[in-house]
Design goal:
Layout lengths: L1 H12 L7 H16 L12 E5 L8 H14 L4 E5 L10 E2 L6 H4 L1 H10 L3 E3 L3 H5 L9 E5 L11 E7 L27 E5 L5 H12 L6 E13 L15 E6 L4 H10 L3 E6 L19 E4 H7 L7 E10 L4 H14 L2
Parallel strand pairs: 1-5, 1-6, 2-4, 2-5, 6-7, 7-8, 9-10, 9-11, 11-12
Antiparallel strand pairs: 3-4, 8-12
Helix pairs in contact: 3-5, 5-9
Length: 342
């Protein structure tokens, strides 16, 4: 049922035709409550907080960006930490994520961040409470994976990630369109990251300003580049070149599964796509009909599939790469220095 509803909404949201009138009739009500609770930037914590989020429903590449920023900060000698709601986990209370947790305990995205970076990761329905657990003697900066619309979460810097392929869909707010906030709210961000090669950063800025007639923050272009295809539950290694021309089942439960499917096609794989709802909780039954060929999935899917006994399953590993603009990372370093100088 959920998959059918999600498929129908996407067909409406990412269609140039106007959405049904009954959805447009609800949009002003959503906008009224959204505007009343929009969070502002404030400094009420002893450690700087950077929120990485989006203004649209579904995945845009937030988690790969968080992982990349953590690795860059670590390489520069800083000590980052991450807070998250831990979407999809059991319970809502504070939990210190361990690399050996299950996704049911930590949430799939929080667990992926922990496993790929090793930084301290806390999940809590009250993300402000999670942020207050860290000491400035141990942590230099806190990155919130999602939370732009969280009205109680303090923040010093806001980064919005935009899907360079789907952009803002039909431009309507929920439920008529995919937007949680109007496009004009991007002017209040500190930085925009465009994920995908369809829209280059300079062209995106020009297009955005022509559409909205206002000034927007700097834009950095990000690409998710495939680095390897690794086995899910065994030790056999395989290079990307070994997969060219091979037929596989491609499995994805992410916000924009078509991006993953397209990535596999660009690597030369022949795919049978299987799209599940975002954050889908896999069971062995999901794979009963997915047989006869290798299964290739995203790293986020792999977090939830390791215990299902799949014998020919593989994981596409990706790395975030950026254009020559280094202003985003420079802003983080300045923010840390600003706090240290207080």
């Amino acid at each position: 049922m959920r998959a059918a509803v999600e498929k129908w909404l996407n067909s409406v949201w990412y269609n140039p035709a106007k959405p049904p009138v009954y959805l447009r009739a609800i949009e002003p009500l959503y906008n009224y409550f959204r505007a009343k609770s929009y969070p502002g930037k404030n400094r009420t914590t002893p450690i700087p907080i950077v929120v990485v989020g989006n203004i649209s429903v579904g995945g845009t590449g937030k988690t790969p960006l968080v992982i990349s920023l953590c690795k860059q900060l670590q390489a520069a000698g800083f000590k980052p930490a991450v807070i998250s709601r831990g979407y999809g986990r059991r319970g809502k209370d504070l939990h210190v994520v361990s690399a050996t947790d299950s996704s049911a305990i930590a949430g799939d995205e929080a667990l992926l961040i922990k496993q790929q970076t090793g930084v301290p990761v806390l999940v809590d329905a009250d993300r402000r409470n999670a942020a207050m657990q860290f000491s400035p003697k141990e942590i230099d900066i806190i990155i919130a994976d999602d939370g732009l619309q969280n009205r109680i979460l303090p923040r010093d810097m806001q980064i919005c990630v935009v899907d360079g392929q789907r952009l803002f869909g039909n431009g309507y707010l929920l439920p008529a369109g995919p937007l949680r906030q109007p496009v004009s709210s991007l002017s209040r961000m500190d930085h925009i990251v465009v994920n995908g090669d369809v829209v280059e950063s300079a062209n995106f800025t020009n297009w955005l300003e022509s559409q909205q007639s206002m000034t927007f923050p700097p834009v950095t272009a990000m690409q998710l580049v495939a680095t390897s295809i690794l086995p899910l539950n065994h030790t056999e290694e395989s290079g990307l070149e070994d997969w060219q021309g091979r037929a596989v089942h491609a499995v994805a439960a992410i916000g924009n599964p078509d991006r993953f499917f397209q990535s596999l096609k660009q690597l030369g794989l022949k795919i049978i796509p299987h799209a599940f709802p975002d954050h889908h909780k896999y069971t062995a039954a999901d794979f009963k009909e997915i047989t006869g060929m290798p299964v290739v999935m995203t790293a986020k899917d792999a977090i939830k599939c390791k215990t299902l006994g799949l014998t020919d399953a593989w994981v596409l590993e990706v790395r975030a790469e950026f254009d020559s603009d280094s202003s985003l990372f420079d802003k983080l370093k300045v923010l840390i220095g600003d706090y240290r100088g207080q």
